[in-house]
Design brief:
Helix content is 26%, strand content 33%. The radius of gyration is 30 Å and the shape is elongated. It has 5 domains: 211 residues, Rossmann fold, CATH 3.40.50.300; 85 residues, Elongation Factor Tu (Ef-tu), domain 3, CATH 2.40.30.10; 78 residues, Alpha-Beta Plaits, CATH 3.30.70; 112 residues, Alpha-Beta Plaits; 110 residues, 2-Layer Sandwich (Alpha-Beta Plaits). With 643 residues, it is α+β, with helices and mostly antiparallel strands. The relative contact order is 0.08. The chain is built from 15 helices and 32 strands.
Amino acid sequence: MPFPRSNIRNFSIIAHIDHGKSTLADRLLQATNAVSAREAKEQLLDSMDLERERGITIKASAVTVMHHHTPGEKADELESDAAARDTNPDTVGSGGEGIKTHGSELYMLNFIDTPGHVDFTYEVSRALKACEGALLIVDSTQGVQAQTIVNAYLAINEDLAIIPVINKIDLPAARPDEVAEELEAALGFDPFDCLTVSAKTGQGIPELLAAIIERLPPPRETKIKQTRALIFDAVYDDYRGVIVYVRVFDGVLRHGDKIRMMGLGRTHIVTELGKYTPKPVKVDSLHEGETGYLVATMKTLGDVRVGDTITLENSPAAEPLSGYQPPRQMVYCDFYPATTGESKGPNFEEMREAIEKLALNDSSFTFQAVHSTALGFGFRCGFLGLLHMDIIQERLEREFDLELVQTAPTVSYKVVVKGKGGQLEELEVHNPADLPDMGTIESIREPICRVDIMVPNEFVGDVMKLCLDRRGLYKTQTVIGENRQLVTFEVPLAEIIYDFYDKLKGMTSGYGTMDYEITEYREDNLVRVDILINNEPVEALSLLCHRDRAAFRGRILLKKLLKQIDRHQFEIPLQAAIGGKIIARETIRAFRKDVTAKCYGGDVSRKRKLLEKQKEGKKKMKSIGSVDIPQEAFMAVLDTDEE
């Protein structure tokens, strides 16, 4: 017998970074006796070492707990009743028996703890598709932030019921009443609907559990008899293959069913069904309205597409559930092994194996093999954003013990070129070195972001100057609360990906927060700046920038290279060029032995003869000598500090 649909609640926990989502998830697990006090630890759902160290959530996690609720019961009674009762997680999904106890009803709560960082917004949007409600968490000391607004709109667009929760009220600097007013000003929530809790101490958690049951809707009525389940995440396990997180919308999934992926058209047999409570607990079936995990004979993440619909092979549904856009890679950079020659040596093979393994667990980054004359063989990888790039790099170095050289991050450009028959073609270019001949290019379009910056009043002028310096276009300004404003600009993504966030944090004493969303590709006067070392172009150092800033950027880069490249026995010219035109030059002077030291006295002709001989030697050396470019020189491009 299935669990009654009216007693199921599916909800997601969304918030800005560090506003207490994972701590609240821990507290909900404890309050519903899903974990005992002995098992409880901080960030229980963040299983990755990196998540625990950085204190951020990278992957969303889905958990099912059971909770007894008595309608109209007071909070203190709720608390004592919950303490007296122990809900056995082994009964999860075992059917509808034992639903009522002492006048209270048993509810199944399925909740998903999501990431807060802007790079992982796609994880949040996927989680919200599987829910009917959301808890919007706001820090009572920091108030509404940029990502709070973005996540709230993601939930509003999915038509979810939202409970605003003001967290961290145990802190001395807490100001819940002001934050409730900010929520009203920014998102239109009634201050009386806001719940105040402290996820750390557990204050207000019983009232929150009661609100989840009373204010969030149960799953929608089933629309068709056939089975339909939405895949909202997938992870790779070395022993079981791919584990798929699903939300069943219609029908039922049973152990042993032959299922069909409606998008990919592949069929598999279900070998295991279960729920995380948060320990994995096997179940025989998943009914409509429930979430859980599914293991079927799937070997790689390529066998699964997140957002796909699962149906039964013998009675398939006519049409799939609405999925969502696949994540788009926006930032690209190259990874090379730190010690490599021209050949694809053992370091390259180790790196290929590591990247392929990592891709099994994170399908949101792409990679392809590339070759550079300076750095040998490596991989061009695509990421959702800078934090995502940082996480992947750290996981490669830490989990696979690799030493990497990383080139400067670039964004994807859309380039319109003239084809052979005079026809126009559009190419997507991820690296300035791959740009076709400038003579054939009709236009270059770059990604433009809408940047929302939440900033205290006294820093608004500085932030506006920063955006305008980065080719930003002013859009709107909204007052939020007494002393903060939301400023919106349109800024090219290429101007954001280096150090925009660091500069913003620095100039606003850490109080400024930002969120960006790519809105369009726009044409601009962009040029490729080539860097020539000893008259040889080095593709790994090429950059694409606005023509007005090309000479300035080129000069800064050459000054950095001047410090990084050692002096040789011959003079080395460093040049920045647009096409055939040199726009900046620096020179690394040659080492010179004082050949005239032994000629004391006034024999000028003898001295001249020795100097001429040295000059000839240097000339010969320059024609056959090669410049050793240290790997630090390629890293210098990353440091865009322009002071």
